[in-house]
Amino acid sequence: MKAVRYHGPELPFALEEVPKPVAGAGEVLVEVKAAALCHTELHFADGTLNLGVKPITMGHEAAGVIVAVGEGVPAERVGERVIVYYYVGCGDCRWCAAGEEALCDKLQAEFGFISDGGLAQFLKAPARNAVPLPDKLSFEAAAPIGCGVTTAVHAVRLAGVTPGDWAAVYGVNGVGFGLVQLLKHRGAKVIAITRSEARRAKAKELGAEVVIDATDATTVAAAVRAATGGAGCDIIFECVGRRETMDACVGWAGALGKRGRLVMVGYTAGDAHEFRYHPIPMVVYEQRVLGSVGASLGDLKEAVELVASGAVSTVVDSVIPLADFQQGLDKIKACDCLGKVVCLPCA
Ligand SMILES: [Zn+2]
Ligand SMILES: [Zn+2]
Q1: Span 235-251, pLDDT tens digits
Q2: TM segments (predicted)?
């Protein structure tokens, strides 16, 4: 079968022929009908993320059809339309017991990170990782739920949003469009901050109350303060993680208000983009800074329900054959996409 393979940092990804996986005991084999590209792939390509496992197949946002099951899995699952949850925890550490597999102490697999992922024609996974998709969701629309929407669901759960909160999303595309809609759905007043005019327009269409042009990051904090009556935000989801975007959030006149929560979702390579914050304003304003990674299986199930109910929709920029994945990644790198780029491995 064809798969997009990673051979280590600084090396180009390659579309290669690899053996088709076989579902083992307790596993299902999924024929991948659609797999979304994520900024994470760029982090692998440029060495920002180097987890030391190679070669592997990339891709952690895959939807498809179960075509075979291993021992112990009901044969009736063959033919089921599913989306794949990409973490496989050990099942017995305290994090797994709490349903937070993304924090597992002895992670068994993480598709597209430390094990073979979904940018391929087939993907095998434990049966419990294959979450049923309603018939009305197309595979192309469903694939970006896998990371784009689940990451938003998880981050909002950690941040604890209250109706009426001012919530900003700094950096709006895959996860960002999910955040804008989910925050709106939870009753927050949403501010979308991005340099892209097209993304601002889309965020507005999806329910953002205020949109702010971030072309000059030094103007963002004042614009947020003005929009919130001087108070600043109750929550900011930082999906960019550059020095200037993080700087805009914090400090005496930053975009984050009193008791505000700054949620780190995105990051950028290099020492120049380390987070820096003097504790005095943080102490005086009683602010909190937290990180958010991935999602739980429960978050994925919730994300599928949110999309199925229409509360959140995935935003798809383009649908391309798997063979054109590099063009898709180049588009993401150039910030030249409105939403997610989805690959069709079987086209
Ligand atoms: Zn565990
Ligand atoms: Zn992702």
Answers
A1: 999 999 999 999 999 99
A2: none
